Every structure is written in structure tokens, then in C-alpha cells.
Amino acid sequence: TSEKETLGFQTEVKQLLNLMIHSLYSNKEIFLRELVSNASDAADKLRFLALENGDLYEGDAELKVRISADKDKGTVTIADNGIGMTRDEVISALGTIAKSGTAEFFKNLTGDQAKDSQLIGQFGVGFYSAFIVADKVTVRTRKAGETHAIEWESKGEGDYTLAEIEKDSRGTEIILHLRDDEKEFLDDFRLRGIVNKYSDHIAIPVEMYREPVPETEGPDGEKIEAQPGHWEVINKAEALWTRDKSEISDEEYQEFYKHVGHDWEEPLTWAHNKVEGKTEYTSLLYIPKRAPFDMYNRERQSGLKLYVQRVFIMDDAEQFMPSYLRFVKGLLDSNDLPLNVSREILQDNKITQTIRKGCTSRVLKMLDRMGKNKPEEYQTFWDEFGSVIKEGPAEDMANKEAIAKLLRFASTHTDEATQNVSLEQYIERMSEGQDKIYYVVADSFEAAKNSPHLEIFRKKGIEVLLLSDRVDEWMMSHLTEFQDKQFQSITRGDLDLGDLDDEESKKAQEESEKEVEGLLERIKTALGDKVKEVRFTHRLTESPACVVADEHDMSSQMIKLMESVGQ
Ligand code: ADP
Ligand code: MG
């Protein structure tokens, strides 16, 4: 054993620890779920590396996790024989938060505990949740194939210590020195209860020690045999997605989501499918309840967990989901991909393409179904992820119509900012003679709602979609029609209301047009180069004038968007 060395936590770790201890107090038993989940991930990672190098098993290929309590010492230990960590890995995994954008995220904390504790959900709780119940945590770990082992220890305040230790067994041991008022977790029965509740779906065995029972006599004097002490498997220890759908409860799906999704909230919905035929795979896809804090960060990792014939291959396989569905979490288990598949191989691969197509349409169908059957849940979804879905029409031509069905808009029907009008609803409400879907794009909802271009539509009672998200202009430039109805911006070109204009008003318009002929010329001379053209319009009923873009010119919002990305 070497000298102890003291290192400081990254600032964000301190903030996270503080937040966690105070905000998850009422939910403290989840620490065990998080640690068992990590042990299971560590087993997955070892099994993957051992595909290439069986020596890593060191003669012990039965991967498992063991939970034990020591009443005298007041400790609970979670020990696995998974991949383990090197010294450097310990420092980065247990001393920093590696996610990009973390610093900015923590800048947004308000200091108001109730508000901030909401934010922790977006972050995932993970290893540090150990400090909810422990005032000191010791981690002893040896990486598979290495001889050096390392001990990490911390009170969850500003720093931690590191020391080299002797450790024969491969893997990681987490020792929780329970706080005085958390001794309930020493109780065997309590621990088993938590594992049953949260970790039943974990695919490796979770074991607890059964104390020896001495030989006794039954009520009729018969002999009941002694039981030696032994490790007992207390979970199902079966990969959840391989089981039959009908045998899996909603609770099991939800707990499993927290494990694969590294989330601590329940998912909104999920789809579990076994696909048979030329390409065989199982997919289990979840829609989270909340957008991650870094959804727009380009470096953010996203994608599915990939398994090949039940063997974990990689996290964040982004090849199976288009970018506009990057919030989908879950896993994919392929029977056809080779076990030695790499990201490079996945890139240009027919099987990948087939699975991606299948998964994409699963997700679109699942969302469509939610939109129809559970509008309230769908609204939650839309409010969180709508702006990402709006990237869809540009990215995925083949599914344009299916994506358009998922879109929700604010509209003059309610004049409220909430985006809750679907195109199908819009079409149902269309006036007689109307053959276009009218919309206006502006910089803000208020600006859209008060656009002078709307006047004639309001007067005639024609619904107009009110768009004001940053991506809206971009999206509309890729959406040309829906169910054979053209989209028409009401601020563009020479708006022709077609059949919606009646004969009488057309005549009146022509007459008033003659009256102002001279005026148009004078305005044009006054504005000079600033405008392309000054035109008479029938669109306005109250405002005297408005600015319009030509049919094929960039709109003012598009110009701003291009400027903001440095074009
Ligand atoms: P996450 O599981 O979402 O990555 P955690 O906070 O739970 O986040 O864990 C942080 C990291 O610590 C893990 O990504 C892993 O690298 C490492 N780690 C934690 N527990 C173990 C373990 N039992 N064996 C090996 N590595 C572990
Ligand atoms: Mg974890």
C-alpha cells in the first residue's frame, strides 16, 4: 500500500453532490439501483473486451454482482467482477463529470433547492448517489488484465484520496459507510426488497449471502436439515428484452429504462419489437419525459445501446436513429451483425440501413399513436422535443408525410402560444373553397400573432398557423404539401386567395386600386433602392402598409438564422 494522495473534485462534481444529497433525500434507496446498474455495465464492458481476449476473464467468466452488509462496521458493499478501472479511469469517472456542456448547465442553477432538484433529473444521478446514504465511500478496483489496484475514498465534500492497494479479485468493490440515520440499509430484508423493486431486470446475477441455518426440529419432532451459508441469486438475471412482451410488466419496462437510459425519471412511452425475417433483431425504444440539457450540443453522444446476439457491443450507436430522433433511448439486439462490428463497419452497412429504417418507422408510429390516444402525454412530448422533430422534414424526405403528421402548431384558431394544432385538425377546419394551408413565420409568437398580414384572414375567418421557432423557416422550406394541400406563407409574393374571394369584393378592389395608382409611384421614388417593388394589396384591412418577401427570396427570419450561424 502506497502513500495516500489527495485530489480535489471538479467544481461541478461538488455542486452535483450538494444538490443530490439535498434533493433526493426522499428517494434515497435509488443509490442501490445506480450502483447495481454500474456493476452490470462493467460486466457488459468486460464481456465485450473478452470477445477478443479471453485471458481478461482470468479464469472467472461468471460475471455477477454481490451485495453484503456488515452490521458491526455499519457498511454496505456492492462488489462486481466486471471490467474494473485503472487509476486514470478512476480519476476521470469518479472525480469529474465528463459530459460536454456541464459547466454551462451548472451556471443555470438558481440556488433554489426545489427548482434545482428538477434539473438533476436531466443529469442522471449515477455513482454520486452513494453519498445520499453514506458519509464516506470507499471504492477498491482492479482493471481486468492489470496488476495494480487502486483505492478511492471520499466523504463527498471537496476532495478524495487515492492509494495503491493489493486486490486479488478483478473488478470493483464499493463500500458505503452508512450515515448514522441510514442504518436501515444494513437490514438484509430491506436490501432484498430494493433489489426486487429496482434491479430485477439486471441481466447478470445479483447475489446476497444467505446465513447458515443450524439443524432444527419441526413441530412434530421431525428433523429439519441444516442449511450451509451460501450466495443466493435474488433477481431474474435474464436480459429483459429477450423475454416475451406479455410477461413483462410496465414497472419492469420503466425500471429497465432507468438503467439503459441513465435517467431517473420514468419514460413517456416505449416500443418493444422482435423483428424476424431476412434481418433479425429486437429493439426496445423509449421516449424520455424530458429533454437532456445538452440536446443541441453537437458533441453530445446519442444513440442506442447495441447488442449482438445478446452480447453488449457499444453504447451510443448513433447509426440507428436519424438525428431528428436523437432523443430516443434504448437498445438494439441484432442477430446478423458480426460480434466484432465497429463504428466504421456500421457506417456503410446494409444491415444497419435496414435496422435504421425499421427503428425510425417504429418511433414515428409510436409517436403518432401517442398523439392520437394520449394527447396530454403527446403535448408533454411536443413541448420538450418538438423543435427537434422539426428538423425531420429536411433530414428525412422518405418519411416527410409521417413526420408532418406529428407536427403541432400555434394557430389563429386559439391565438395561444401553445403548439397544439395538428395539420389534420387544420385541414378538417378548412373553409369551403380553401385549398391551401396558410402560415406565417415571425421572430416571436407575439410578432406572428400580430402580423398585419393576418388581417384579411381574420376577417374572412380563415385559420393561419403561427410559427416562431428558430427552425420553423428552415422546416417550412422543406415542407411543400400535406395530404395534397400546398403550404402557403401569407407574407410571400402576391397572395391569391383564389376561390375564397368573392366576385363583389374583387370588383371593389379593382376600383380602389385605380384610385391610388399615383401614390404607389410616389412611395417608390421616396424609398428608392430600399425596396424591389411597391404593390397594391388587398390583404390589409386595418394597417396601411406592410413589408413582404418575394416568393423565392429569403424571408427576414431566414436571413437572421443564416447570420446567426455565420453565413
Ligand atoms: P454513468 O453510469 O451514467 O456513466 P455513473 O455516475 O453511474 O454514470 O458512473 C460514472 C462512471 O464510473 C461510469 O461511466 C464508469 O466509467 C465508472 N464506474 C462506476 N461504477 C463502476 C464499476 N462498478 N465498474 C467499473 N466502472 C465503474
Ligand atoms: Mg451509472
TrEMBL record:
Chief location bin: cytoplasm
Keywords: ATP-binding, Chaperone, Cytoplasm, Nucleotide-binding, Stress response
UniProt cross-references to InterPro entries, sorted A to Z: HATPase_C_sf, HATPase_dom, Heat_shock_protein_90_CS, HSP90_C, Hsp90_fam, Hsp90_N, Ribosomal_Su5_D2-typ_SF
Domain Histidine kinase/HSP90-like ATPase residue range list: 27-182
Subcellular localization(s) per the UniProt record: Cytoplasm
A: region residues: 1-343
Pfam families registered for this protein in UniProt: HATPase_c_3 (PF13589), HSP90 (PF00183)
Domain of life from the UniProt record: Bacteria
Role description: Molecular chaperone. Has ATPase activity.
Family, similarity comment: Belongs to the heat shock protein 90 family.
Assembly and binders: Homodimer.
Protein name: Chaperone protein HtpG
Organism: Pseudoalteromonas qingdaonensis
